[in-house]
Amino acid sequence: MSKNTGRRAAAAIALTGAAALLLSGCFSGGGSGGASGDGDARIQVAFMQPPKANMNPFSDDAFKLSRWSTGETLVQLNDDIEIDPMLATEWEQVDDVTWTFTLRDDVTFHDGTPFNAEAVKNTLDQAMASTTPPRAMAGVALTTEATGEYEVTITTDVPDPLLPNRLASPQLSILSAAAYKDDGTITPIGTGTGPFVLTDVNGSTTATLDRFDDYWGEPAKIAGIDASFVPDGTARAGSLRSGETDVAETIPVSQIDLLDADTAHEVLQTRTTYLALNSESGPFADPAVRAAARAAIDPSGIVDSVYEGHADPAVGLLGPAIPWAEDLRGDVESATAPGTVAGVEITLATYTDRAELPEIAVQLEKQLEDAGFVVTQDVREYANMETELLSGGFDAVVFSRNTLLDTGDPLSFFAQDFTCEGGNNVSRLCDPAVDALVAEGQTLPLGEDRQKATLAAEEAILQLDAAIPLVHDRVVQGEAGTFADVKRDPLERRLITELTAPVQ
Questions:
Q1: Which range marks the domain in which residue 106 is found?
Q2: How many structural domains comprise the chain?
Q3: C-alpha span between 103 and 117 (Å, rounded)
Q4: Are 346 and 395 in contact (CB under 8 A)?
């Protein structure tokens, strides 16, 4: 039996110092939001992607809830990728499959209803019953019982040492009962617990959040957040230069030199861009054709030509922000010899939200055509192609993924992206050996044995050529210098917090 209070058990990763620090900005300069210089100020933020699922918290839209500090979870990942309290103050693992969580007794939902064990049970039950359950729960089923007004007992169907990490996913933000509608829709508008209350989402264009004065923690230092969704990277950078925006997500490399030096802030990420090959249907269902694509692709020039040095050459699916990966990784070769591909027609897809991806696709098209493939590109906004990406609608996809986004554990990333039941499996890989390696690794406690299992799974995936690693990304976050304590988060979970304040 183990019990955790205060700072909790270490998660699967310890990032290097540069990646682990969620740096705060404290700058001088012009901008729109900080003009009032007091608690009446509102911050203007340009986000890269609009909502993809009408703000359904069980989708990737949940990460907006955490970056806006409106949705909160039972526990949270801290700067060292360890588990800390949030809505739960302490927890205890009773046996291999049973955990109890003690809840805060001073929390009120944004709609005025009380936060308690029944509310937590409702959210977790809704997640388990969802037709699209949160990715963080892949491979694990749980049941929840309110064993006290402020105590919940969670039982998993299999031993799961990663349960606290899963519960830290923004996709398991605890919402009030009013969030869950009779027609199956879910809305976080006015139903969260964070320092900012979401008051409006205007389709794919804007969202509005106001300070929640009854917040259980330290009240927010600003009056609210005005979010705009700007998929075009050049437009995001332009809004920063013009003073319309205080903070802009993911500035394209092509725009960095157009910003003042103290405006562009590079954040080492646990993000990898790779070429996902559809191993289920089409030409790449043939392992020899996948091997031919891998042999044709040389990603070495992408870092210099596309990223202008603001990235690292890929050494696997897990990059340098996960320091133990390189130490445990061996050489990986294709399990199949390359086949003949002269005249083989393929569709190569990617999305415009990350400005570098279409440029990568251009380079890959040439390399693949030099090997004999006939390539047709399909490039759109992510929101307009997600369903096709996840259902195998393309032969190959230039895809960018934060490998620690869901749980802070890269083995969970493999489970989501490369197993038969994975909910984010763009490669459409379904291999019994890979599934077995991932499943076995997920039973291991956090530590060196789990790390070795993770690298064994990576090797098996790469041998099948389902994914061809290209680059390990660094993200450039734009800040006008009008607000301090804007988070620069390698895990892309936090951005504007209760501490964010105008520069005086």
A1: 73-175
A2: 2
A3: 7
A4: yes
Token representation of residue 290: 């996948």
The CATH number assigned to the domain holding 408 equals: 3.10.105.10
In a domain, 321, yes or no: yes
What CATH number should be reported for the domain holding residue 96? Answer: 3.90.76.10
d(CA 348, CA 335): 23
Q: Tell me which residue of 131, 128, 122 sits closest to 156, measured CA to CA.
A: 128
Burial class of 485 by CB neighbour count within 10 A (0 to 12, 13 to 18, 19+): middle
Strands 311-313 and 501-502: unpaired
What are 183's two structure tokens?
């027609």
**Is residue 441 one of the residues assigned to a domain?**
yes
Q: Which two tokens stand for residue 141?
A: 């089923």
Which residue, among 344, 372, 349, has the nearest Cα to 360 in the 3D structure? Answer: 349
pLDDT in tens, 159-210: 998 999 999 999 999 999 999 999 989 999 999 999 999 999 999 999 999 9
Torsion of CA 304, 305, 310, 314, to 10 degrees: -70
Q: How far is CA 496 from the centre of its chain?
A: 16
Residue 141 shares a structural domain with residue 276: no
CA 211 – CA 200 distance, rounded (Å):
13
Q: How confident is the model at residue 18 (pLDDT cuts 50, 70, 90)?
A: very low
487 located within any domain: no
